[in-house]
Amino acid sequence: MVNARIRKLAGFGVIFALLVVSVGAYTRLADAGLGCPDWPGCYGFLTVPDEATEISTAEARYPEAPVEFAKAWWEMGHRYIAGALLLLVASILFMAYRAREEEDTPLKLAAVLMFVILWQAAFGAWTVTLKLWPQVVTGHLIGGFTTLSLMWLLFLRQGGLSDMVSALPRPNWLAKIAFVAVVVQIILGGWVSSNYAALACYDFPSCDGTYTPNIDLQQGFNIFQSVGPNYLGGLMTNEARMAIHWVHRIGAIVVLLVVGGLVIQTVKQAAVIGYVLLAVLVTQITLGILNVVWVLPLLNATAHNTVGALLLLVLVTINFAPRLRIVQS
Fold first, then answer.
1. Residue ranges of the alpha helices (H) in 130-225?
2. Is CB count within 10 Å lower at the N or C end of the chain?
3. Is 239 marked active-site?
4. Confidence of residue 327 (pLDDT cuts 50, 70, 90)
5. Distance from chain centroid for Cα 98
6. Predicted confidence (pLDDT) at residue 114 exceeds the cutoff of 90
7. Mean pLDDT, range 243-255, rounded to an integer
8. Which of 59, 75, 101, 239 is catalytic?
9. 146 and 183 in contact (C-beta within 8 Å)?
């Protein structure tokens, strides 16, 4: 049966996970990913050093990384929120284990979620220790979206939004294709961000005044690249970054067409979530365009990341919620 306490914790978990994704995006976009050059502390301290003696000690330990308070606090804030989410997931797993003999207890889902968030913590550490290696940064972003999606499923599984879920039809081939398209586009977006390619094309809808830009796909999507001692700011050629950016734009067109078709279909079958899907899709496409037109303002770029997460959650609901056997409390 439905566990109301787990549902409440999962609801808070969704908020925390979305906050982790958003703060992580801002930290990355503000070039604060190395705001603390070590992990899990900051210059060897549990908090950002702010006393003169602490700053002196910190900069003696890491002479190549002078203390920047704003960046360091964004990085540590991200870690604190992620740590709180870890404790919340541990609480859910403990409660699910205690209720393991009851029907529909989400023990397996909670265990998978715990494994993912621990793996995500490892990626967070590697992001710092490997100096923003783009493969790790992209993997860290994917892990954040996966954690959020699993937490959302756990919330739905325990009766969250049961009236809406009960009205959803079983997903068809178009819903599945839309889900895959959005997942691939999110991965591409992570690759754009981790390789500092968001402004590789300075105009829209063309790329540097042409629709056939000179791009280097081989280097742009070489996942075995050597990144050197520090990847802050990126090391790829502009042609490689243009390749990443241009492929991401093409992916956006595919998402618009596929998810747009799903919107038309879903509005006819389940109007509420269909209109939600439409609103999130239009917002996400608009934010992506504005990233280029407005030259990547931090808040807009962060919102683009957050709304991308919301788009994924809507598609997770459409594709997976109807398969859940939800027992009313």
1. 134-157, 162-166, 173-194, 217-220
2. C
3. no
4. very low
5. 31
6. yes
7. 98
8. 75
9. no
